[in-house]
Design goal:
Layout lengths: L2 E6 L9 E2 L2 E2 H19 L2 E4 L9 H10 L4 E8 L9 E5 L6 H15 L4 E5 L11 H5 L4 E8 L3 H6 L2 H15 L5
Parallel strand pairs: 1-4, 1-5, 5-8, 6-7
Antiparallel strand pairs: 2-3, 6-8
Helix pairs in contact: 1-6, 3-6
Length: 182
C-alpha cells in the first residue's frame, strides 16, 4: 500500500507569509489536513509533520519520511512576493530527482491550473555549493515536492482560492502518479 508524507509548511513561531489577513501556517495546515483525509479515505497511509499549530523541524521531517519509507513527500506552502502580487502555483523538486517527483509536481500543477491558479512550472533551486536550497528536498531520500499553492499576497487569487477544491486537486495528483497498490 502506498505511503505518503503530507507536510504542512511553517507553524508555531514561524507563521510563514502573512498577507490580506491570512497566515501561511494556517492555510498550509488546513490543506494538509484535507489532503490527508482524502488520501486516507482512498486507502493511503499518510504521515504528517504537524496536525496543530506547532513548531516544526525540517531535519526531523526528512528523517521521518526516510525512516517511514514513504513513496513521496509533499510539502505544502503558499507563495508571496514583494511589489505587484504575482499569481500561480509552482513546485520545487530536488536536482537529484529521477522523475517521480517531477511527475507528481506536474500532475498537481495541471489540476490547480484547471481551478484558475496558473501553472508557474516545476523548478529547482540550488545553493552556491550546488545543493538543493530547500532542506526538505536536500535531506529526503525519496521523491519530494515543495508545492507553492498560490500567492497569499494576491487578493484576486485568494478570492478564488478554495481549500477543499485545492486539496482535492492535490490528492488527485498524488493518486495519478502514486497508485495505492504499486
Amino acid at each position: 500500500m502506498a505511503k505518503i508524507a503530507v507536510y504542512a509548511g511553517h507553524g508555531g513561531i514561524d507563521a510563514g507569509a502573512i498577507s490580506n489577513g491570512l497566515r501561511e501556517e494556517d492555510i498550509t495546515l488546513a490543506i494538509s489536513k484535507a489532503v490527508t483525509a482524502i488520501l486516507r479515505g482512498w486507502g493511503y497511509t499518510v504521515i504528517n509533520n504537524r496536525t496543530t499549530d506547532t513548531d516544526r523541524n525540517i531535519t526531523a521531517d526528512a528523517i521521518a519520511a526516510n525512516e517511514n519509507k514513504v513513496d513521496a513527500v509533499l510539502s505544502i506552502h503558499m507563495n508571496s512576493n514583494d511589489g505587484i502580487p504575482m499569481s500561480g502555483a509552482e513546485a520545487f523538486i530536488s536536482i537529484r530527482d529521477t522523475g517521480r517527483a517531477l511527475a507528481l509536481a506536474l500532475a498537481v500543477l495541471r489540476r490547480l491550473d484547471v481551478l484558475g491558479i496558473p501553472n508557474r512550472g516545476v523548478k529547482t533551486s540550488v545553493t552556491e555549493a550546488g545543493k538543493d536550497s530547500f532542506g526538505i528536498l536536500r535531506l529526503t531520500e525519496v521523491p519530494a515536492v515543495l508545492l507553492e499553492c498560490a500567492f497569499i499576497n494576491n487578493p484576486q487569487e485568494m478570492a478564488i482560492f478554495d481549500i477543499a477544491r485545492v486539496s482535492k486537486a492535490i490528492a488527485e495528483g498524488v493518486r495519478e502518479v502514486i497508485p495505492l497498490w504499486p
